[in-house]
């Protein structure tokens, strides 16, 4: 049996809470200490440019990308054959598949590499992303990256805005966008924005 101090972490929040900033700062801390981080992000989210993680405050770093077909255990194992990897950082972790979350758990358990996942917990309809649901089930530690609603309360939900400025009630779970598309709200103001039908179950 292999014993390791490595853990699978899930840092979750709503939109615009600074998840990428926290990730980039943590990866920078590893580099400052002469350690090697491996950065991964979803391939189809190229708002910061291809193969790149960037934050709204202007910092960024190159990253490898994953698709739903990527085997992340094999990816990490291959990197370890070429040299040390002291921590794996994953941005947009809500886009992981359930199978990929299990692959990351295996990398922690069998390869002894800590994995830090950063992503959204719920979508604009208040439903869990599949990757986030799997991380909530499997992560050794979970940490909330907090932001606030316009009323000052903690934001736990997000709405997707339409072209007319109104909150959309339906649509695909995944749609790439930033401040022009999504607004983080507390539950009270999310319910208000989404309409009374959300209160009817």
UniProtKB/TrEMBL annotation:
GO MF annotation terms: ATP binding; thymidine kinase activity; zinc ion binding
Principal place of residence: cytoplasm
Keyword Zinc: yes
Pfam families given in the database record: TK (PF00265)
EC number: 2.7.1.21
Gene3D superfamilies linked to this entry: 3.30.60.20, P-loop containing nucleotide triphosphate hydrolases
Protein name in UniProt: Thymidine kinase
Annotated organism of origin: Roseinatronobacter thiooxidans
Top-level taxonomy: Bacteria, Pseudomonadati, Pseudomonadota, Alphaproteobacteria, Rhodobacterales
Gene: tdk
